[in-house]
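Whiteboard transcription, Tuesday session. T.W. wrote the C-alpha cells on the left side:
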C-alpha cells in the first residue's frame, strides 16, 4: 500500500462516522488555533466536562461577552480577534451551555418589535390618494416621501440584531464553516425542543446560507484518485448512501466508467459540501449490486446512460439548502457536453421511508380492523378509518405460508412479523419472496406516488428528485440486499429519470400542485390497487364470527 492510500485509510478510520453524528458533538474543530481534543470529548450534552460548575458558568459568561462584542463592536481592526475568541469559546462549551448561548442569541438579539409596531402604526396612519393617476411629478414625490421614509425604516427594523453576527462571520476566514456548525447545533436542539425563537433564528440563518451558497459561489470539481488524500478521506467518511468498504472500492468509484463530482466553496477549502457519484452504463441499472460490483466496467464509449447512484452532504448544518438540485443539473450539463453519446440521465435511489410507513400502516390497520369487527357485531356500523391493505390473492398467499416459519392471525400480521424479523429470513426463501413481491411492489408504488405531506411526496428522497424535475420511472425488486436496504425499503430501489426536455416542466408542476410524473408501469400498480377489493375484512370477520359461534362472513368492501 502506498503512502497516499495508507493516509486515506487511517484518516477515514479515525474520523467519526458522519452518519452517526446526531448530537451536538458533531461539531468539528473551531475556526483557528484548534482546541485540544479533550475539550470536545465532553460536548455531547451528557456531562459538563472536567471543570466544575463554577468554572462552567464563568466560561459561559466569557463566551457570551465575546459574542456580544462580536455583534456590537465598531472597531473593525480588532474584529477578527473578537470573532476568533467567540468561535474558540463556543467550542469549549458543554452541550447545555451551547444551548443556553443559542437561546440568548435568539431572544436577546432579535428584532425590536416595539419599534416595528410603531412604524406599522405610522404607515397605517398615512392617507393614500383616492386616485393615484392624478398625482405625478413633484407632487407624487412629496406625497409619498413619508411612505418611503417609514418603509425604509421598517425594512431596517425587521432585520434582527444577530444578522450583524452572521454577516461578520461570513466574511471572516473560516466563518462560513462555523456558521454551518452553529446551525447544525440549532437543528439538533430543535429535534428535541420546539422553541419558537430558536426556530426563527434557524430560519433566518438558513436564508443567509442559501444566499451565500448560490451556484455562482460554488466550484464544480471532478473528484479523482489524483486529488489530495485529505479530500478523498472525506469522501470515504461522508458517503451516506452506500458506504465505501475499502480502498479498492474507492478506486473503483473514481476509476474508468465512473465519475464523482463535488461542490467546493473557497471558505471551506479541501472539503466538498456535497458530492454525487455517477456510473456510466449501457442501460439503467436495476440493482445497486450491479453498480458497485460491475468489474470490469464497460468501455465509456459504449455507455448510453449516466446513472446517479449516490449523493451525500458533508455538512449537517446545510440541511434543507438544496445544493443537490444545482449539482445534478450542472453534472448533467457537463456530462452531456463531454460525452454526447449519453442520452439517459437516471438515478438508482433508496426509498428510506417505505418500510417505516408500511409497518405503521400494517399495525394501525390491523388494530382498526379488529375494532371495526367488534363495532359491527355490536351495532352493525363500521369504521370510516379502516382501509383495506391487501388484495384477496395476497391475503390468501400470506396465510398459506408454512405455519412453522411465520405466525399471524391475518395477512397483515404475517407481513408485519416477516418484515420486522431481525434475521430477515424471508430474503433467503424463494417461497416467501414470491408471496411478498406483489404486495410490497404495489404498496411501494402507492407510497411513492400517493402518500404525501403538505402536498409533496412523503419520502424525502422522492421529494428531492421530484422537486428537481425528475419522473418516477421504475421500482426494482431486491435491488439493495444490504441490511440497510432491507430495513428501509425491503430491498426495493427506484429509478428516477431526468428527461432534459421536461426537467423544468416537471419541476414546475410538482412545485405548484404536487403533480408527480411517473411511467405507465408505476401508474398501473396504483390503478390496480384502486380496482381490487380486499379479502382482509372478510378473513378477520370470518375468524371473529367463528370465535363467536357463527360461520357467517361479513363482506367489508
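and on the right, the sequence the group agreed on:
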Amino acid at each position: 500500500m502506498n503512502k497516499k492510500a495508507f493516509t486515506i485509510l487511517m484518516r477515514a478510520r479515525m474520523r467519526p462516522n458522519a452518519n452517526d453524528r446526531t448530537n451536538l458533538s458533531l461539531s468539528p474543530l473551531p475556526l483557528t488555533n484548534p482546541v485540544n481534543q479533550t475539550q470536545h470529548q465532553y460536548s455531547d450534552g451528557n456531562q459538563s466536562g472536567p471543570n466544575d460548575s463554577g468554572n462552567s458558568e464563568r466560561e459561559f459568561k466569557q463566551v457570551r461577552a465575546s459574542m456580544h462584542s462580536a455583534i456590537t463592536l465598531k472597531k473593525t481592526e480588532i474584529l477578527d480577534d473578537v470573532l476568533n475568541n467567540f468561535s474558540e469559546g463556543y467550542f469549549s462549551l458543554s452541550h447545555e451551555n451551547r444551548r443556553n448561548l443559542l437561546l440568548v442569541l435568539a431572544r436577546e438579539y432579535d428584532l425590536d418589535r416595539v419599534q416595528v409596531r410603531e412604524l406599522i402604526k405610522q404607515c397605517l396612519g398615512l392617507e393614500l390618494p383616492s386616485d393615484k393617476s392624478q398625482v405625478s411629478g413633484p407632487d407624487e414625490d412629496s406625497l409619498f416621501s413619508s411612505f418611503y421614509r417609514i418603509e425604509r425604516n421598517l425594512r431596517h427594523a425587521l432585520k434582527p440584531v444577530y444578522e450583524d453576527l452572521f454577516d461578520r462571520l461570513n466574511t471572516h476566514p473560516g466563518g462560513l464553516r462555523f456558521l454551518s456548525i452553529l446551525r447544525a447545533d440549532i437543528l439538533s436542539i430543535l429535534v428535541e425542543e420546539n422553541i419558537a425563537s430558536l426556530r426563527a433564528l434557524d430560519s433566518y440563518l438558513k436564508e443567509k446560507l442559501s444566499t451565500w451558497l448560490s451556484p455562482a459561489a460554488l466550484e464544480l470539481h471532478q473528484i479523482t484518485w489524483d486529488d489530495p488524500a485529505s479530500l478523498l478521506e472525506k469522501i470515504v467518511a461522508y458517503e451516506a448512501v452506500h458506504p465505501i468498504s475499502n480502498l479498492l472500492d474507492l478506486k473503483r468509484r473514481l476509476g474508468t466508467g465512473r465519475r464523482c463530482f463535488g461542490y467546493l466553496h473557497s471558505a471551506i477549502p479541501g472539503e466538498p459540501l456535497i458530492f454525487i457519484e455517477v456510473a456510466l452504463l449501457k442501460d439503467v441499472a436495476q440493482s445497486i449490486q450491479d453498480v458497485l460490483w460491475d468489474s470490469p466496467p464497460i468501455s465509456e464509449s459504449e455507455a448510453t446512460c449516466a446513472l446517479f447512484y449516490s449523493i451525500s452532504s458533508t455538512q449537517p448544518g446545510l440541511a434543507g439548502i438544496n445544493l443537490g438540485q444545482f449539482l445534478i443539473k450542472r453534472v448533467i450539463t457537463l456530462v452531456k457536453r463531454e460525452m454526447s453519446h449519453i442520452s439517459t440521465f437516471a438515478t438508482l435511489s433508496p426509498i428510506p421511508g417505505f418500510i417505516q410507513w408500511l409497518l405503521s400502516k400494517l399495525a394501525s390497520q390491523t388494530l382498526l380492523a379488529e375494532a371495526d369487527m367488534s363495532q359491527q357485531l355490536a351495532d352493525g356500523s363500521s369504521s370510516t378509518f379502516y382501509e383495506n391493505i391487501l388484495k384477496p390473492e395476497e391475503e390468501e398467499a400470506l396465510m398459506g405460508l408454512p405455519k412453522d416459519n411465520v405466525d399471524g392471525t391475518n395477512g397483515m400480521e404475517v407481513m408485519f412479523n416477516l418484515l420486522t424479523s431481525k434475521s430477515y429470513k424471508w430474503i433467503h426463501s424463494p417461497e416467501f419472496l414470491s408471496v411478498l413481491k406483489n404486495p410490497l411492489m404495489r404498496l411501494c408504488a402507492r407510497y411513492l406516488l400517493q402518500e404525501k405531506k403538505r402536498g409533496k411526496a412523503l419520502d424525502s428522497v422522492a421529494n428531492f428528485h421530484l422537486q428537481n424535475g425528475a419522473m418516477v420511472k421504475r421500482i426494482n425488486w431486491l435491488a439493495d440486499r444490504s441490511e440497510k436496504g432491507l430495513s428501509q425499503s425491503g430491498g426495493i430501489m427506484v429509478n428516477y429519470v431526468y428527461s432534459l426536455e421536461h426537467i423544468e416542466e416537471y419541476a414546475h408542476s410538482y412545485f405548484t400542485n404536487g403533480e408527480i410524473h411517473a411511467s405507465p408501469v408505476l401508474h398501473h400498480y396504483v390503478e390496480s390497487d384502486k380496482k381490487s377489493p380486499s379479502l382482509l375484512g372478510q378473513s378477520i370477520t370470518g375468524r371473529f364470527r367463528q370465535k363467536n359461534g357463527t360461520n357467517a362472513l361479513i363482506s367489508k368492501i
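Someone added at the bottom: Residues 17-51, 534-557 have pLDDT under 50 and may be disordered.
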